[in-house]
Structure formats: C-alpha cells, structure tokens
C-alpha cells in the first residue's frame, strides 16, 4: 500500500515545520553565540582600557608591601641562639677564606644557623598570617 498524495503532503508539512523549527533554533543559537562573542570582545576592550590606570596603582601598592617572612627572619637572626650560630658561621667563613688550599667548607655551620633561624621563624610566622 503506497501513501496517497494527501498523506505525502501532510508528511512534507510536518517535515517542513520540524525543519523550520530546527533551523530557527540553529540560527538562534548561532546568533546568540555571535552576540555573546561580540559582547565578550567589547567587554575585553572596555576592561583593558579601564584597567590600564589601576595596574599602575597596583604596582605602586605592591612596592609598599613588605614580606613578613623577611622581617621575622631579621628579628630571629638577632635572637641569642641565632647570634651564637651566626658567629660560628662567620668564624668558619673567616677561617676558610684565610686558607688558600683547604677542603674545609662551612656547610655544617650554615645548616646549623639556618635551622636555628627557621626554628625561631616557625613559631612566629603564622601568628602574622591573616
């Protein structure tokens, strides 16, 4: 049994309506994406122009910031135990630099000083972190 002409016309209309809806949706999506990309590009242009001035201000603000780790390290180097290990390190460096041919280095003294300083810093650093 073959479909008659009216059935074919109905099927064609359904197909055409479906195709029209699908094409409309496709065009809507492509237009939406195109508009969104254009908006995004315009937004980037505007924000780039607006952000040129604040970047300079931010750089100035960053120059004013002080690393709390460095200030705490400087304070800890003045503590009694660190002063003692730093003196041992400086004596070793003076001894090694005074000799022209030596295998001695000051690695142990350096590590002792860094350990003492970092031990002091570890107890004070995280009290300053917000």
Automatic annotation (TrEMBL):
Domain Ubiquinol-cytochrome C reductase hinge as annotated: residue spans: 67-130
Cell compartments where the protein resides: Mitochondrion inner membrane
GO CC, alphabetical: mitochondrial inner membrane; respiratory chain complex
Annotated InterPro entries: Cyt_b-c1_6, Ubol_cytC_Rdtase_hinge_dom, Ubol_cytC_Rdtase_hinge_dom_sf
SUPFAM superfamilies: Non-heme 11 kDa protein of cytochrome bc1 complex (Ubiquinol-cytochrome c reductase)
Cited Pfam families: UCR_hinge
Lipid bilayer topology: Peripheral membrane protein
UniProt cross-references to Gene3D superfamilies, sorted A to Z: Ubiquinol-cytochrome C reductase hinge domain
Family recorded in the similarity comment: Belongs to the UQCRH/QCR6 family.
GO terms of biological process kind: mitochondrial electron transport, ubiquinol to cytochrome c
Keywords: Acetylation, Disulfide bond, Electron transport, Membrane, Mitochondrion, Mitochondrion inner membrane, Respiratory chain, Transit peptide, Transport
The protein, known as: Ubiquinol-cytochrome C reductase hinge domain-containing protein
């Amino acid at each position: 049994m073959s479909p008659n002409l009216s059935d074919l016309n109905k099927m064609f209309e359904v197909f055409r309506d479906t195709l029209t809806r699908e094409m409309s949706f496709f065009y809507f999506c492509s237009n939406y994406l195109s508009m969104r990309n254009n908006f995004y590009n315009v937004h980037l242009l505007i924000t780039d122009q607006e952000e040129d001035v604040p970047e300079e201000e931010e750089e100035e603000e960053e120059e004013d910031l002080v690393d709390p780790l460095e200030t705490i390290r400087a304070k800890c180097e003045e503590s009694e135990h660190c002063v003692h290990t730093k003196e041992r390190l400086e004596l070793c460096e003076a001894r090694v630099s005074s000799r022209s041919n030596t295998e001695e280095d000051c690695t142990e003294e350096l590590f002792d000083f860094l350990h003492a300083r970092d031990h002091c810093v570890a107890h004070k650093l995280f009290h300053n972190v917000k």
